[in-house]
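worker-03 picked up job from queue 'complexes'. Input manifest follows; two sequence lines, order preserved.
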Amino acid sequence: MNFCKRAWLNVWAKKGRSILLILVSAAILMFVLAGLLIRSAAVKATNQAKAEVGATVTLSANRQAAFKQMRKSSQSKSSKRSKLTLNPVKLSDATKIAKLKHVGSYNVTSTTSANAKSYDTVSTSTGMGGGGTSGGPGKMGGKTTTSTGDTQIDGVTATSLTSDFSDKQSKIVKGRGITSSDRNTNHVVIEKELASQNDLSVGDTMTIKKTTGNKGTVKVKVVGIYKASSSSASTAGPMSTDPSNTVYASYTLANSLKGSKYANTADSVTFNVTAPSQVSQVKKAGNKVISSSKYALSTDDSSYQTVKASMSSFEGFANKIVWLVAIAGTIILALIVILMIRERRFEIGVLLSLGEARWKIVAQFFTEMIMVLVVALAIAGVGGKFVGNQLGSQLMSQAATTTQTTSSMAGQGQGGGQAAMTTQRARQRLSWPLRSVRSIWPNSVGLVLPLPSCRLCWLQEASCAWNRVKS
Amino acid sequence: MLKTQDLSYWYQNANQPLFKNVNLEFEEGESYAILGHSGTGKTTFLSLIAGLDTPKDGAILLQDQSLKKIGLTNYRRKHVAIVFQAYNLFTYMSPLNNLLTAMAITESKHAGDREYATQVLRDLGIGEDLITRNVQHLSGGQQQRVAIARTMVCDARLVVADEPTGNLDEDNTQAVITQFQSIAHDQKKCVVIVTHELDVAAMCDHQYRLENRQFTKLA
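worker-03 finished. Artifact:
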């Protein structure tokens, strides 16, 4: 083991050169460790984001099958025009799906309309020479499809599970929202404009008039007041009521307003899938427990796919950093070692003249490198730990923001006007790990990366996921 | 002890050898000087008998055994010690560590014996204050004495020296040659010195001149 002693003597005697080599190696190793750290953070963040963003499966009436049935009926009874009959979803079917693997919470939606009795609805002037309330939305279910009212009743399991509330489009300003405990009660949550116009507050009662059946009246109790950020009628269709006239209630109340035959039914049920990657399996399993001629299961994992694409791009970016630094570092270290060995040809000659074995000479140089690398690794480890702590806390704080945003994706429908929000969320999700990294490694990352074309993530236009989302 | 049999060497053209069919014999307890002008092949001959190179033709025998059979690395480690004109010490070590390293590599019977190494250095005039100092901080004469000490602590029976006094002044030259004579006569080793200095050669027991591709023994 004389070569080990020689290695030590050489490293110790040439302190300046050894320190320089340690610093260069430490810098390279720190870059590599940082790259690995970023990649590890990206993988963790990806998994977390994937878990949080979720995916949904919606159970609703099978419109395709209903249209097919309608066409068949109209062919047989050529003189008479047939009506489109949509079957409301039975809650017993929804319960079966809720028991499937990877299915988390679910939200029952039942929407109808009613007429104001003890209050005035909010009227909207369109500036086109007309004003006042327009017809309510047409609803599912046999004969009631033509019934309209000036107040829209949105029956839900809980307001917090609706996309409007989870997306912060609407928020409770007084009282509370509808929860699952409001089942079989007449509790409602009304819009702030409607409340102020009618001088209503939490605890007050209001009377609404059914639009179907005996057209009787129902007394409802206000338990909460919400504020809708998009209260303009322009956001709704030309036949819609003003958004302020939307009243949230338990789906049981909406069903009772529709009629007794709608008990234990829903317009649609949205299931949150806990493992977004398993959404197709959930759909497959769900189709087995329902009648596909009556109902259809639709999936919405677009958010998951967006996040997946964004994070894959980020992981690729981190991988590139690791490889780039590792290759560049290896080349730099190899060049240094080659220069060192060239410088020491004289010493090699002396060792050979003394009869030293070649492998021991090689082993001596390797031992010297290992000594230097061990110290460099320790320095890089300490530096990496510091960077890791900084990066970790930064990622955690960003993740908290992202969690709030991503959780709103659960139960999101396919309604219009969501595209801009989806893009905004995707941008936030995509950018936070990159912003975190950039804030910690502003100069070092810039050293090893070419000047990017995307200001957000520094990637080239073609490979930038944000640009893909934008387009 | 060491014999050359029809030893020939050339670099590129076999028709222009540095020396051809050289037959020499070197004995223990004797010192030999090889004289010659620059470029005649003195150092090349020394490289061959030191096992640093292989002959193009002929053979070198150590106690009637071919160097090929002994193995050049083994031969260099066990049977030969070399002193260079530029001392060729480990520049990142002290004189003591230079000796201890050489003793370890050559698997000397005194390997690891610091006292022995210190005594040898002391005998050659390298005092206590110098033995732990980096060799680069020693004078040329001191460094050459350390190089000679390195050959003394090894068990090699053959000591070859290439221009060992080339960088030394007169006093140091005298001291170094005295040491070589002591190695030859007291330690009963065979010392072969390549030099172009007649004074140095005259102090050796035998002198050979390399001229016109042949070795000639001087009277």
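worker-03 released lock.
The two ends of chain A are 65 Å apart (CA to CA).
Chain A touches chain B through 18 residues (CB under 8 Å).
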